[in-house]
Write a structure and sequence with these properties.
single chain; 258 residues; 10 helices; elongated
Length: 258
Amino acid sequence: MSTDSPDRPEIPRPLGEIAQGPSAFEQFLDRNQKNLVALTILLALAVAAWVIYHGVANSKERSAGAELAKAEDVTALRNLVRDHAGTAAAESAQVLLAERQWTEGEKDAAIATLEAFISANPKHPARPSAQASLGSKFQAQGKTAEARKLFEQIVADPAARFMEPYALLALGDISKASGDTKAAEESYKKAKTEFPASSFANIINKRLSLLKAQLPVEIAPPPPVVAPATPAAPAAPTAPTAPTAPTAPTAPTAPGAP
């Protein structure tokens, strides 16, 4: 297996990108680095627990376990999954393979690997961790609907309780990003109340503090001043009436005229 210690997990970062400022994935890592560190540790512990649980029941398991201990790259892990199908080591290698694929920029392949593992291994102890890992990857890609569905499945599953504080934290972040601060607060508070000693407790407390911080109250602008009505123009003076022409005098009647 890789010489990386579970206590110093490797944070996934995309490869082959042209540096034009921080990518969306890098910004996601900046916001969620501590979350992903803790998630990686939990994932490694779950995988290790499964291998230890099965132990070395037979020579096939011993051989697969030995290869898993030496596998350090995508090729080695992929070969292990193919050549030792059905062993506990091969099942666990799928989860580790997905993480390595994601680290090396094979994001679609990583998601497909996790989806296949979750579908084929519903009872595997690492299944909740794999769901959380898949949810975080969808979240990094901006696929919040897919991420929310996975985190809600974790919260509803009693067997996934050890991953529930992380799932609640992620659900709170998704709700906050969508502007639903009420739902975000409910998720954070549930995580704080039910899991006060979790490795995510400090992060959850900070999220709540930021959520409760009152933003400056915006004062509505005063209504626009209504301009006074323009007075009506004065009526034009009435033109003087033309004088009536004088009536011509009547001619006098001649004397003797009838």
